[in-house]
Amino acid sequence: MTTRLAAIDLNLLVALDALLAEGNVTRAGRRIGLSQPAMSHTLARLRDLLGDPVLVRGPDGMRPTALAAELAPQVRELCEQAERVLLERAPFAPATAERRFVVAASDYVGVVLLPALTRSVLAAAPGVQLRIRSLPGRLPVEELAAGEIDLVIGTFAGSAEAVESEALLRERFVCLLSEECAREPLDLDRFTSLGHVLIASPGEGSGPVDEALEALGRSRRVAVYVPHFLVAPALVAGGQLVLTLPERIARMAAGQHQVRAIEPPVELAGFDVRMYWHARTGRHPAFEWLRDQVRLAARADR
What we know:
The chain is 42% helix and 23% strand. Helix 3 (25-32) packs across helix 4. It is rod-shaped. The strands form three sheets. Strands 4-3-5-12-6 form a five-stranded mixed sheet. It is α/β, with parallel strands linked by helices. Helix 10 links the parallel strand 8 and strand 9 (221-226). It folds into three domains: 2-87, Orthogonal Bundle (Arc Repressor Mutant, subunit A), CATH 1.10.10.10; 99-171 and 272-300, D-Maltodextrin-Binding Protein, domain 2 (3-Layer(aba) Sandwich); 173-269, Periplasmic binding protein-like II (D-Maltodextrin-Binding Protein, domain 2).
């Protein structure tokens, strides 16, 4: 049965439905966008397929045969089912939805966007569970393709096949110093002489600060490596250390510690925070809704 069905042009169902509804080749063709000759050809194909005339001429025009009249309600139901399956996507209903979304996010995103995202998602969809995963050092393409991760929020260079992305925020770098340390101007000489706090794992490659200094023939001394954004500002408060970090994190830290954010003495390139998703979820209503919530959280922080 599967082999026979695969050999059939299912557009014939649409044509048969139109012919049985209209009882006229020209009107049926107009209904589905075919010319009269093309519709006549389609009728001939239907007759050959069914082994039945389908329509026969009577005193008051064309009439369906007994077989065609018997098939008519089934053909109409099949066409309606096809329309529902292929054309009528059920909207996502957050208020009654019960499902889990897996979001992989960077440490930066965890501080800047996830609080607002969590509030908006759970307020609109109390039956939804958010599972936040830490990001590896690469864009997790395989996990997105396999459905292990639904959405990634972070910063990655380049692109990957079947992975779509959208910019959410543009971020810039500032320097964070203790209130006491910030009383003196931060020129390039002082910047390179101070001990630096670096948010990274030991052994990682150079970042924007080291690259900018290298271009000037200068270098810095990293005194402390830390793995998380939340730890670093506390190390700067009350000491003689400098921390270069994204401005949004610096604003939060200034409200929690005795620190001050100032402009770096060297030009540093900013970066985009993006969300990434696999093309297989691109048109699914639930994942479209999730991405809308991320956009709202990002706009709230601009």
